[in-house]
């Protein structure tokens, strides 16, 4: 683990936070909750930056650029957010990202845009960006100023979001348009969930074989729970409550991490870790 270079008048960083190499933070106020991971070559420069627990910020993310010294240059991020490599967040005006959002690689979120002479009628736009809970904003998408994205929204890759999007929609395009409304969250039957999870467990066992995990492993899904059996030991993953109980080992943690990668996140007092 590495030390970040931090210039701030108000530092509130949980002891569990991990920093990669060459992390530079310059904020009047910085707050990072428990189990946040900040990757290599990350720059955070704004008035205030606040992230709840379980932020995963990948390598090369940049928070700052034009207007980052403004008193309005504030970033607030909810719980369980992933921001992937080489993404740019430009908080000339406030940026707010809700819980459980995924911000894909090389995404750009802009809160200001002006270059040509506005007295000659050329466009200029300054304003905040707000992203709700459970939003997937995939790779190389661009969010422009004065945009609000509702909760439970999935957006197509390479989209340019220049207008606000309602909750529960599927949207894509350049410019981005709503394709379907009231799609998410979708209620799945118990049988659909069972088939899906049994497929995930089957895939995980194939991966275990590929990794050379030779010990005897059995899994079972019933009554909304995954049961992992290792010899005489049992680990229980409660899918509805998002809790884990019983025996903890490198294999049980590998399954927890695999479930995370397949979209089922179970948070504990430990970082996600695969074998």
Concise overview:
This protein has 275 residues and is mostly beta strands. The chain has helices spanning 190-211, 250-261; strands at 5-7, 10-13, 18-19, 24-32, 37-38, 43-51, 56-57, 62-63, 74-77, 82-83, 88-90, 95-97, 102-103, 108-110, 112-113, 125-126, 129-131, 135-137, 142-143, 147-149, 153-155, 160-161, 170-173, 176-180, 217-222, 225-230, 233-238, 243-246. Helices cover 12% and strands 37% of the residues.
Description:
It contains two helices and 28 strands. Strands 1, 2, 4, 6, 8, 9, 11, 12, 14, 17, 19, 20 and 22 form a 13-stranded parallel beta sheet that branches. It has helices at 190-211, 250-261, and strands at residues 5-7, 10-13, 18-19, 24-32, 37-38, 43-51, 56-57, 62-63, 74-77, 82-83, 88-90, 95-97, 102-103, 108-110, 112-113, 125-126, 129-131, 135-137, 142-143, 147-149, 153-155, 160-161, 170-173, 176-180, 217-222, 225-230, 233-238, 243-246. By secondary structure, the chain is mainly beta. The protein has two domains: 5-180, Hexapeptide repeat proteins (UDP N-Acetylglucosamine Acyltransferase, domain 1, 3 Solenoid), CATH 2.160.10; 190-261, no CATH class.
């Amino acid at each position: 683990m590495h030390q970040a270079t931090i210039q701030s008048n108000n530092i509130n960083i949980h002891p569990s936070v991990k920093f990669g190499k060459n992390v530079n933070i310059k904020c009047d106020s910085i707050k990072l909750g428990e189990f946040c991971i900040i990757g290599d070559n990350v720059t955070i420069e704004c008035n205030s930056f606040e992230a709840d627990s379980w932020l995963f910020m990948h390598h090369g993310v940049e928070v700052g650029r034009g207007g980052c010294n403004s008193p309005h240059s504030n970033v607030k991020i909810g719980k369980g957010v992933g921001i992937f490599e080489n993404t740019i967040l430009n908080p000339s005006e406030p940026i707010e990202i809700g819980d459980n959002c995924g911000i894909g690689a090389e995404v750009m979120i802009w809160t200001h845009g002006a270059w040509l002479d506005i007295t000659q009628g050329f466009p200029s736009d300054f304003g905040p960006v707000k992203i709700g809970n459970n939003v997937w904003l995939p790779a190389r998408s661009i969010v422009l100023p004065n945009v609000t994205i509702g909760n439970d929204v999935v957006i197509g890759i390479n989209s340019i979001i220049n207008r606000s999007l309602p909750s529960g929609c599927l949207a894509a395009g350049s410019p981005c348009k709503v394709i379907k409304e009231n799609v998410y969250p979708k209620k799945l039957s118990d049988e659909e969930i069972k088939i899906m999870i049994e497929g995930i467990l089957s895939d995980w066992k194939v991966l275990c074989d590929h990794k050379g995990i030779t010990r005897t492993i059995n899994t079972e899904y019933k009554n909304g729970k995954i049961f992992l059996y290792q010899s005489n030991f049992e680990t229980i993953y409660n899918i509805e409550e998002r809790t884990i109980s019983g025996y903890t080992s490198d294999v049980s943690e590998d399954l927890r991490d695999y479930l995370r990668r397949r979209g089922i996140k179970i948070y504990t007092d430990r970082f996600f870790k695969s074998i």
